[in-house]
Automatic annotation (TrEMBL):
Domain NodB homology: 1-182
Key words, A-Z: Carbohydrate metabolism, Glycoprotein, GPI-anchor, Hydrolase, Lipoprotein, Membrane, Metal-binding, Signal
GO terms for MF: hydrolase activity, acting on carbon-nitrogen (but not peptide) bonds; metal ion binding
GO process annotations (BP): carbohydrate metabolic process
UniProt cross-references to InterPro entries, sorted A to Z: Glyco_hydro/deAcase_b/a-brl, NODB_dom
PROSITE patterns tied to this protein: NODB
Name recorded for this polypeptide: NodB homology domain-containing protein
GO cellular component terms, A-Z: plasma membrane; side of membrane
Cofactors (names): Co(2+)
Database matches in PANTHER family: CHITIN DEACETYLASE (PTHR46471), CHITIN DEACETYLASE-RELATED (PTHR46471:SF2)
C-alpha cells in the first residue's frame, strides 16, 4: 500500500487498524493482498472492529461479534490474531475497555499514539501521510523513536501466530454485519 511504503521509506513501522466490512470486504482479493503486503513489510495489524460501530451503543454479544469476526478474518488471511483493538471514534468507557481486556486480552490503543485515520480516504495517503513524514524529518525525529503500538507500549503484537489459511467459501462478508462508510 502507498501508506505502508511511505512509512517504511523512512525506516519506520506503523500499526494499521483494520475494519472487516465497511463499504469494502476484508476478504476481497485486493484487501487480502494489501494486508499481507503491510504485515510482511513489518507493520502491525490490529482490529478496528468488523463494521466500525460505536461499540458503546452495542450489547456485549454484539461487541463479541465485532471483535471475533475481525480476529477470524485476520487469522485466515495472515495467520495472526491481533492483541490490540482501537474502538471506532475512540469511544470506549472504562468498563468496555475492561471487558475487552478480560475477554480478549486485548489492549485498547492509547490516545497518545499518533494514529492516521483513515487510509481509505484518499487525502490520508496522498496528503496527510507525506506531510506528516516531512514534519517528522524536519523536526529531527528518527525512525528508531517511532514504532508500532506494540513497540511503543511494550507488548506482543499478536495473541496467536500461526499460518495463513487458504481461501475457501468462508472468506466472505455475505451474511455478516456491514458498515456503510464514514
Amino acid at each position: 500500500s502507498i501508506v505502508a511504503d511511505d512509512i517504511a521509506s523512512i525506516g519506520a513501522r506503523a500499526t494499521f487498524f483494520v475494519v472487516g466490512n465497511m463499504g469494502k470486504c476484508i476478504y476481497d482479493e485486493d484487501s487480502v493482498q494489501a494486508l499481507r503486503y503491510s504485515y510482511n513489510a513489518g507493520h502491525q495489524i490490529c482490529s478496528h472492529t468488523w463494521s466500525h460501530p460505536n461499540i458503546e451503543t452495542l450489547s456485549r454479544p454484539a461487541i463479541d461479534q465485532q471483535v471475533q469476526l475481525v480476529e477470524e478474518a485476520l487469522f485466515k488471511i495472515l495467520g495472526v490474531v491481533p492483541a490490540c483493538i482501537r474502538p471506532p471514534y475512540g469511544s470506549a468507557s472504562p468498563s468496555t475497555i475492561q471487558y475487552l481486556n478480560q475477554k480478549y486480552r486485548s489492549l485498547h490503543a492509547p490516545q497518545n499514539v499518533i494514529i492516521f485515520n483513515h487510509e481509505t480516504v484518499p487525502t490520508t495517503s496522498n496528503q496527510v501521510i507525506p506531510q506528516a513524514l516531512q514534519i517528522v524529518r524536519q523536526n529531527g525525529y528518527h525512525p528508531r523513536n517511532m514504532g508500532t503500538v506494540a513497540q511503543t507500549v511494550g507488548f506482543a503484537p499478536y495473541k496467536v501466530i500461526g499460518r495463513p489459511g487458504v481461501r475457501d467459501s468462508s472468506w466472505t462478508c455475505a451474511g455478516k454485519p456491514g458498515g456503510g462508510g464514514w
